[in-house]
Amino acid sequence: MDSLLVGGLVFVFLSTATSTGLIVRARLPNHHLNAESKDVIRLATAVVGTLSALALGLLIASAKSSYDNAEVEMRTAAARILLLDRVMAQYGPETDNARQLLRELIEKRLSRGWTAETTDETSGKAVGEYQDIETVQSDLRSLAPKDAAQRALQARALEVSGMVAETHWLLVESGKEGLPWAFLTVLVCWLSLLFATFGLQAPANPTVLSILFVCALSVAGAIFLVSDMANPYVGLVHVSDAPLRSSIERLGKP
Fold first, then answer.
1. Which whole number is the average pLDDT over 140-165?
2. If both were cysteines, with which of 28, 69, 130, 135 could 32 make a disulfide (CB 3.0 to 4.6 Å apart)?
3. To the nearest 5 percent, what fractions of the chain are helix, strand and coil?
4. What 3-state DSSP class applies to 241?
């Protein structure tokens, strides 16, 4: 689900919960909201508030970890692609076709985006990336080394190309993970309960309503960031493809 949509829905839920609290407050008898009642409400919501803070902290930490891992994977993939190209260059002109295929693979990755679907789909004459790297490996296996040095370079190139293929499949599998939606749903329910109690206890004046609005917007913003960072290759907060764009400038050089 789109991160902006998730953040917007959370804001709507929290605003609705606050409005519900304000409406209920206006209809409750006065003795239901005396000092003793408000103390009990504050104690009960303090427990839910603490749980919500812990849950939101865990989600943020999980999303940040996913983002950092994706950034490392991007840099590692760029380094492996450069290494593979240099190993093939050292082998000799027999690898020119494989090097060109490798360059085309990176250009396709940059043009088609970073979701698991776009990196694995086939459309028209454009095959999936896994088939591109398998074609490179096939070319490498068909080489006929003339001496020990070329045999060592062939073995090294096959090893590195296997790592590049592994990176692709890791992207495909990790792209299906996303947010723990059940966990997020429970968190939003807790937050809605909190905001309902805010509306239940607060007088309906412009200052209070403005503060509650800003608080709901802030919480919705935090959920948006969590959702966006949990999908690190797409969205507003995404991993930069600068390492690959830098590496493509070096591919194919003698």
1. 91
2. 28
3. 80, 0, 20
4. coil
